[in-house]
Amino acid sequence: MTYFILKRICVTFLVIAVTSVVAFLLVHLSGDPAAAMAGEGATESDIAAVRQLYGFDRPLIVQYFDWIGRVLQGEFGRSYYLRMDVADVLADHMPVTATLGVLALSFALLLSIPLGVLAALYPNTLIDRIALWLAVAGQALPSFVFALGLMYIFGVYFRLLPISGGATWAHFIMPAIALGYYATPAIMRLTRSGMMDVLQSDHVRTARAYGLAPWRVVVRHGLRHAIIPVVSLAAVQLGFMLGGSIVIETIFSLKGLGYLAWESIQRADIEVIQAILLVIATAYAFLTLLADLLNAVLDPRIRMS
Amino acid sequence: MRVKSALWTISFAVLASFPAFAGKDNDALIWATATEMDTPDLYYGNQREALITAYAQCDSLLYRDPKTNEYLPLLATSWRWLDDTTLEMELRRGVKFHDGTDFDAQDVADTLNHLAAPDSDMKIRVVVDWIKNVEVVDTHKIRIHTKGPTPAAFEYLSGTSPIYPSGHYQKAPEVPGADGKTRRDWGAVLPVCTGPYKIESYQPGQSLTLVKNPDYFEGSPKGKPTIGKIVYRTIKDTETQVAELVTGGVDWIWGVPPENADMLNTMPNITVVSAPTMRMSFLALDAAGRTGKNPLTDVRVRRAIAHAIDREAIAKNLVGEGAAVQKSLCVPIQFGCETDVVQYEYNPEKAKQLLAEAGYPNGFTVQFYAYRDRPYSEAVINYLRAVGINAELQFLQWRALRPLIVDNKTPIAHLTFGSNGMLDASASTGHYFQFSPDDYARDEEVRDWLAKAEKTMDPAVRKELYSKALKKIADQAYYLPLFIYGRTYAFTSDLDYPLTDDEMAHFYMAKWK
Q1: What's the pTM?
Q2: How would DSSP label each residue in B79-112?
Q3: CB pairs below 8 Å between A and B: how many?
Q4: Which of A100, A272, B356, B481 could cysteine-pair with A264, CB 3.0–4.6 Å?
């Protein structure tokens, strides 16, 4: 088991190291960052001054080790554009994305699990059809169309909700619904199929034979089993949402991580881009490591292989 | 009944948690654009948003009246050239900065001397690069010593050169630089100025709030401010901006696309207007053969390209309201912009004939580089295809295109330029024909005329030199001017907003109706 853990940790660090190199190269080789930073109106000497100021005139390998050396000391650098330390920039934007992600997933779970259960309990009925229609619509409708539709109905027409920004909790209602709805179809379908399997299983039949209340059979003996794969899927969806949704954050003008990443790419704010990539890659790598270790604990075949 | 009252309670709670709305009732003008401001310090930023804020918050030595383009006294009350390289200015007395300190000559000297120093890390150095040093003569008199004759000096000193109090930049934080060294982040210091509005709060990348300066000095050509607050917000998505405008969340937006403008025009509470900007769109043709031997070195081919494109149709039908055909490689409101130059009418037959004369009866294939507004580039390419020129579009981000321009790899580049807001042809024509990496014409005569125009103090002689240069640029079709961008503004009808054609929002002049 110790060997297995050490091996997985080594692989995790290797993944992070490779990601950092790839991220660094992608950002630097996609054009002249000094030209982007100096702006369109800059002369060649303005651009040269920027190149020298930020050290882009040095060989890439020197720049990489300079950057990674500072990161290892806990120093993410400074956003040349926002003129803030990168750590502060991330600290400003991460709560927005985290709030949005958690709210969106909560909405998705609250909508899709009951619908999935109902669809499984009443297959091929009107309820099942409505649930299916909602799932298909969620998959087929581009998120920006749904988001703009919500904005028009609740923001412009009824004027019930604020349209943009993240100043209050009310600002998160429409973005969370728009983002969460996108995750709904997969969770709903998985719940439905899982419940249909479980409802035909021996232990549920036995529970019914004991004369237990129907809701108790469904919730305690059915849903409890059917929800296990849903939890795994929800964790993956949460991972995506914590990476930031560029489209939803842009439409609702929420200053989250996805919006920050997109804006930083546009303006070649290199240290911010690298920090975002590194943070997300590290989070994914450690979540994967955690999942591997949990699986190994639960299943001896994995750790013995 | 209980359900109904619960719903009302929830609705009220939601609405009560909203931030205060914009508008006349709240005496707060909220304006939104898609661009995040990098810094409100104009010297270290390079955006219209910073320029708009600086005009409202700060004063320069001179003020260019946006309606007449006349230079008026602001922080300087009078001035005279002692010789071609010494400008003496008398400064206004009794002016205070927003932090309560008195304005004097030392503030001007410290601000401009800091920026003119080679290590000031200024973004667009042209604004101060002409200054050798600023000398304090007495408490309210300065002398600006220039590196050479600088006819555009007044342009540089009006609007784009705010004055800060002495010691302002000493507050700049020391931040990590390359190779373990540190550097000063000069642009991180919030501006302290003397203007009609002062900064109340600033959230980088999100918002900036200005409040009225009740002590703003009498007699300023900018006038006394009337609106209580001016709030800038970044809203990236145009649809969201429009939705906010319609519901009163913001009061003013610009860059409204034609389809949204048509919709907004039907609303009685919204005013929609368009005006030209200072951004020109043009084709840089490789007349000098920097990319190697190519058809564009033949003037007949370049003229054929000029005749092949219906610029009027692109400006009117595609770019939309406010846009206009660009007649010469400069912006008409700039000093020295000669527009009486050769014009190439839309005539595809003539284009084909010129191509045949040049030895390309069946056209040719050429790489066409662009970075902004793809539909406009594609329209140009379609016109070229109609006369047999197969232009292969390479659409890149600016940072990827820029190195290709420098490395002699762009036979045709569809470029745009905003002249950094300068009303002088040195900022447009002068930028492209001085044998710099941006110069794909490499005409010695044009270069010399332009260089002389930038060092000649006599306005009449300057005009003549620019005229000669621009006429030759047009005659030889070195660069092909296409159109001047337009901008559509939409704002609440409660606002008395001064529309100008310098692509600026002069909010300090705005009033509630």
Answers
A1: 0.86
A2: EEEEETTEEEEEE-SS-B-TTSPBP-HHHHHHHH
A3: 155
A4: A272
